[in-house]
Amino acid sequence: MMQSVVLARRPLGNPVEADFALVDAPLPEVTEGTFLTHNSFISLDAGFRNWMNEDSGDEVLPAMPLNEPVMGLVLADVIDSKHPDYAVGDKLMARFAWQTHSLSDGTDFIARLPDELEFNPSAYMGVLGDTGMSAYFGITDIAKPTADDCVLISGAGGAVGTIAGQIAKLSGARVVGIVGSQKKADWLCQTLGYDAAVLRSSETPLAEAIQAACPDGVDVFFDNVGGKTLEAAISNMNHRGRLVLCGAISGYGVTPHGPNNLFELITKELSVEGFMTHFRHDRYDEAREQLSAWLREGVIQSPEHRLSGIENVGKAFADLFAGENFGKTIVAV
Ligand SMILES: NC(=O)c1ccc[n+]([C@@H]2O[C@H](COP(=O)([O-])OP(=O)(O)OC[C@H]3O[C@@H](n4cnc5c(N)ncnc54)[C@H](OP(=O)(O)O)[C@@H]3O)[C@@H](O)[C@H]2O)c1
Fold it and tell me: Mean pLDDT across the stretch 168-196?
């Protein structure tokens, strides 16, 4: 038997558990040119919210149809194959649906994993998966922080932010995170080595709170949130600062708020670069090797917000938007 989480209705604004439903079906038949996987972990990734809207398809994914399995990222083991390139036992990180099993013809977005996994399998969905690699590419390729920099990170307690902050610390930079609760702020500083944290929910306007935490200004802003958070960061940027745009969760499923201070990009000579980890597929092995080395040396940690059972996938996804997660959100199937 195969279980699938389908899109029961289109979320209005932030997704909630009731937007998703669990459906049972017989295991699909493996025909010539296809293979079947068992999916042991499902990764919950905020960006997939975008493709839940009607007419939201783009070059990355088509819009998700109603009552069909929800697309996501999974850790998959091939359990049956009539495909020349995939053998029983192969381990994959793949863009498959939220299902206990997936049937693929190999044309999906698939990254191969080593036969022997050195770390806990769930790490290959987090720090060694798409979100960890996003932190790696954004910080090492684009931000390139130095010990003289102040690096500000939004969504700092989430999957990307926790890793981005720890990588930035390795350069000696001062690292400050923006988070939604005092508990998460304390955790970032006491457990992950952040130097300071700013509360996005505090009474103080965000730009003022950032200024208090970054009195010498911000040299690098690594943004996972967009909108008003981006606006508040821009007003605190130093001359020739770098804005690294990774995500914009505050605008997923709602009308996004555009920053109203873009003129400061000119007057402060700021550079802005967005990126999609998806388009760096050819460098996944390099990213995984470096992140593995840091894990092995014990200089970065891989915190997880883990739930169990495919019936909890919808809740886990909603948790991302409610800020419930400390670290990578993942469901053990
Ligand atoms: N460019 C790429 O290739 C790429 C790849 C992967 C992910 N991403 C992006 O990276 C970001 C993080 O994704 P993730 O899946 O790892 O999620 P995550 O950071 O683990 O979780 C999302 C966090 O964002 C904060 N948040 C939620 N709604 C918010 C709002 N309206 N305003 C401000 N903060 C809000 C919450 O933390 P607090 O409550 O503590 O603020 C929440 O814990 C997303 O924007 C995602 O699209 C980009």
Answer: 97
pTM of structure: 0.96
pLDDT of residue 60: 83
Atom 43 (ligand 1): residue with closest C-alpha?
323
Q: What average pLDDT does the structure give for the chain?
A: 96
pLDDT at residue 134 tops 90: yes
Q: Which long-range contacts (CB under 8 A, 24 or more apart) does 286-290 make?
A: 287/132, 287/133, 287/136, 287/137, 288/128, 288/133, 290/136, 290/140
Secondary structure (DSSP) of 231-250:
HHHHTTEEEEEEEEE---GG
Position 253 scores a pLDDT of 83
For range 299-320, the mean pLDDT: 97
Q: Which atom of ligand 1 is nearest to the CA of 181?
A: 40
What is the 265 CA–ligand 1 centroid distance (Å)?
A: 24
Question: From atom 7 of ligand 1, which residue's Cα is the shortest distance away?
Answer: 131
**Taking the CB of residue 186, how many other CB atoms lie within 10 A of it?**
12
Confidence of residue 202 (pLDDT cuts 50, 70, 90): confident
319 lines ligand 1 (CB under 6 A): no
**Cα 50 to averaged position of ligand 1 atoms, centre (Å):** 12
- Residue 198, ligand 1, Cβ within 6 A: no
Tokens of 220: 């690098």
- Domains of the chain, each with CATH number or no CATH: 2-126+304-332 (3.90.180.10), 130-278 (3.40.50.720)
**Is the model's pLDDT at 24 over the cut of 90?**
yes
Looking at residue 285, its amino acid is: D
Nearest residue to 133 (alpha-carbon basis) of 256, 294, 319: 294
Q: Is the pLDDT of residue 322 over 90?
A: yes
CA of 133 to the centre of ligand 1 (A): 14
The pLDDT, as a whole number, for residue 37 is 98
CB 266 within 8 A of CB 93: no
- Residue 63: both structure tokens together: 């819009």
- For ligand 1, the distance from its centroid to the CA atom of residue 111, given in whole angstroms, is 23
